[in-house]
Design a protein that fits this description.
Helices cover 51% and strands 9% of the residues. The chain is mainly alpha-helical. It has two domains: 1-131, Winged helix-like DNA-binding domain superfamily/Winged helix DNA-binding domain (Arc Repressor Mutant, subunit A, Orthogonal Bundle), CATH 1.10.10; 135-189, no CATH class.
């Protein structure tokens, strides 16, 4: 029989259930903070997420197909969000690719201004985590990165740019190693979103 994570009776005796419920609370905190910022700027949460993502990632990732995978939503959902962002003059569609049906999403000057004023929506969460001791942060990150990687391996998260899934990563008895940087990696140096990531497959 499957465990019922949100049953308080289960949580009394099952630590995994408590942790699952706790992660859901953290997820709710992100949603609340993102919604507050979205309402303040007359945007939807996914529109802000698209703008922030495009601002910080390579342009080859800034297209409808990839963004749908990135945020685990349908292409029509991304297309609708992009259409609104275009109407608000926050993005520019670059149709210069060989495929005339596809385009790359670029930020306009106005879009960059909105990113500068919205990407701090998770600052309260950062501040709380930053109050943890260094060793606590390292252990929390180690466990989170492991769980996130496992979610990817099970197909729950479709996109993963972590060291563990990268062709440059290797692990030995001595720990983690990056063959691109040609150096060992400490636990806290493992990346969840690496710009140099290349899939093992």
């Amino acid at each position: 029989m499957k465990k019922k994570v949100f049953d308080p009776k289960l949580q009394e005796t099952d630590l995994a259930g408590k942790i699952g419920a706790g992660l859901e609370r953290v997820s709710q905190a992100f949603k609340v903070l993102l919604w507050e910022k979205a309402k303040a700027f007359g945007l939807s949460p996914i529109q802000i997420q698209i703008l922030v993502f495009v601002a910080h990632h390579h342009r080859e990732l800034a297209n409808v197909s990839h963004l749908a995978q990135e945020f685990n939503v349908t292409k029509p959902t991304i297309s609708d969000a992009v259409r609104v962002l275009g109407k608000k003059e926050l993005i520019i569609k670059d149709h210069s690719s060989a495929d005339s049906r596809s385009y790359t999403i670029l930020l306009s000057d106005k879009g960059n201004e909105v990113v500068a004023r919205t990407e701090d929506f998770a600052q309260p969460i950062y501040e709380q985590i930053n109050q943890l001791e260094g060793a606590e942060q390292t252990e929390l990150f180690r466990l989170l990165s492991k769980v996130i990687y496992q979610f990817n391996q099970k197909g729950i998260l479709s996109v993963q740019r972590t060291c563990f899934a990268c062709k440059f990563y290797s692990k030995s008895a001595n720990g983690h190693y990056c063959n691109l940087l040609v150096q060992p990696l400490k636990e806290e140096e493992i990346r969840l979103d690496c710009l140099e990531f290349e899939s093992k497959s």
